Amino acid sequence: YRGDFSSSIDLEMLKGNLKADRFSSEPIYWANQTSNFKALRTDFFGQDGLHYVLISAADEILVLEDQRLYFQGVDSTCTAAIFAPDPLSTANVNYGGLYVDNNDGPTPILDLERHNITFKADYSNGIFRLENADLKISDFSSPSIAPHTQSNPNFNLTRDQDGFEDVNAFAHLSIFKNYIDSLGFSSIPGNLIEIDVHAISDADQSFFTSADWKIYMGEGGVDDAEDVDVVIHEYIHAVVFGASANSNRINERAGMEEAICDYFALSYSTKYTNNQTDRIFNWDGHNVFWPGRNATSTKDYQNVSFSGNIYTNTDLMVGCLREILFNTSRATSDQIILEALFSLQGSSTYRDFAIMIINADQVLNNGANYNIIKDAFVRRNVLDSDFSLDESIESKSSIAVYNSFAFASGGSLFIKSLEKLLSYQILSLDGKLIQAGELNGLESELTAPNLKTGLYLIIIQASSRTESFKVFRN
Q1: What pLDDT, in 10s, does the model give residues 368-426?
Q2: Which of 26, 30, 50, 46 is closest to 38 using CA atoms?
Q3: Domains of the chain: which residue ranges?
Q4: Residue 143, preceding bond cis, omega within 30 degrees?
Q5: DSSP labels, 119-147
Q6: Which fold has domain 245-392?
C-alpha cells in the first residue's frame, strides 16, 4: 500500500519520548485474524533502541514494540573452548615470557588456558549463529570480517582464528545477561546489543554507542574481545544507559560510570577465579600496550579532583564496590548495585551513588549490609564517619526512586526526597497519561496494578523541581 495516510498523533513528541534521533514512516496494510486495514508504520531509531510503532486510521497506537522482540530462531545449547576470564588470571602470571599476544599467533601455552563453557546460540537451517534475542555478533566496522558461523555446536577454536573472539564475547555476554535476568533485571539494557569484535580499524580501544546500541571492539595490542573484562565493561555501559534516565553527565558521573563498568568486569571474573582481583583488564592491559586499571585504592575522596581525565579516580569507586563484593556475595553485591543504577542522574557524585547503594540495600535486604557498605565508603572518605540512614538523599533538591525491579513485576515503587513530594504522572512513551496522583511527605510508595508490559516514564513533582525516570513493567 502506497497511498496517503494522515494521523493526528504527534510523531515528533513520540520521537522525543523514545529518545530517538530520527524516524521514518510508511502507510501499509495490516492484517489481523479477521481483516485487513490501513495503518501507518513508523520506525524510530535512537538512544532507547529501535522501536516499531503501528498507528491505525482511528489514531490508535496498535503496536509499540522494541524490535528485538521480533527476533526469530531457536536457541540451542553449544559448547566453546574460551578464556574464562583471561589466560593471565587463570594461570596467575603476569604478561611476559611465553604469555604474550604474539600478534594472535598460535601459542600452545595460551590455548591451555581455554576452558569449556556452555552457552546458547541461534540454530536455524542447519547453522549455528552467535545471536539471540539480546545479543548479536555483527560486522559493522572496518575491517570487514563476517561473524563466525558453523554447522556443529562445539565451538572449539584457537585464538589465531577470527572466530575465537566472536565466541569469547558472545558466550560470556550470554551467560552474564542470563545472570542479571536471574537477579530480577531482565528489563535492562532493554534492547538488542550488536557487537563487532573486529572493529575500529584495529585500534586499541573499545566503546559502546547509545545511538545504535552497538559495541565496537578493537584489535590493537591484545584483541579486546579476548579479555572478558573489556567485554563485560562495555556491555555494562549499555546496562547503565538502559537503567538511568540521563545521559548528559558531569565529569565525576562519567568517571563513576567507568568505575561501575570496571566493578562488574571484576565481579564477573570472580565467577571463574579469585586470582589477580586487584586489577582490571588483566590481559588487555598491564602490559607493553597500556597499563590497565586498578581495582583497589586507598585514595581520599576529599583530596581528589574530577576536573581532568574521567579515568583518573575510577579505582577509588571500584575499591569501595570491591570491598562490598568480598564482604557479601557476588549475587548480593551485584543486585544492590544494579538496583542503585536506576537512581543515577547526570549530576550524580560518588557520594550520591554511595547513598543510592545504601538505599537500595534498605529496599532489597532491609539494610542487612548497611555497615559493610558504609564502612567501604567511609574508609575512603566518600561518606563521613558519622553518616546515618537519615541522610538518604544528597540534597533537598534531589529525588530518587527505588525497588524498580520489583515494580517491573507488579510490586511497589519507593520514592524518596528531602523536599516535599507533591504529585506523580505515569506516561506511555507516546505521551498518553496512564496514571496520576498526589504524593505526600518525603517518602511515598507507588503501585500501578493495571500497567501493561512495556516501558514508561514516571514524572515526579516536588516543591521546587520535577524529575523523570524510566520504569518497566514485565
Answers
A1: 999 999 999 999 999 999 998 766 544 444 788 878 777 888 889 999 887 899 999 99
A2: 30
A3: 11-70, 74-243, 245-392, 396-474
A4: yes
A5: EEEEEETTEEESB-SSEEE---SSS--PP
A6: Neutral Protease; domain 2 (1.10.390)
Q: Quick check: 284 and 230 in contact, CB under 8 A? A: yes
pTM above 0.90, yes or no: no
Write the burial class of residue 268 (CB in 10 Å: 0-12 exposed, 13-18 middle, 19+ buried): buried
C-alpha R_g of the chain: 23
Amino acid sitting at position 276: Q
Give the closest residue to 235 by CA, choosing from 278, 190, 276: 190
CATH code for residues 74-243:
3.10.170.10
Residue 407 CB neighbours (<10 A): 24
Number of CB atoms found within 10 A of residue 160's CB: 14
What tens digit of pLDDT does each residue of 168-201 get? 999 999 999 999 999 988 888 989 999 999 999 8
Which helix or strand (DSSP H or E) is residue 320 part of? helix 314-327
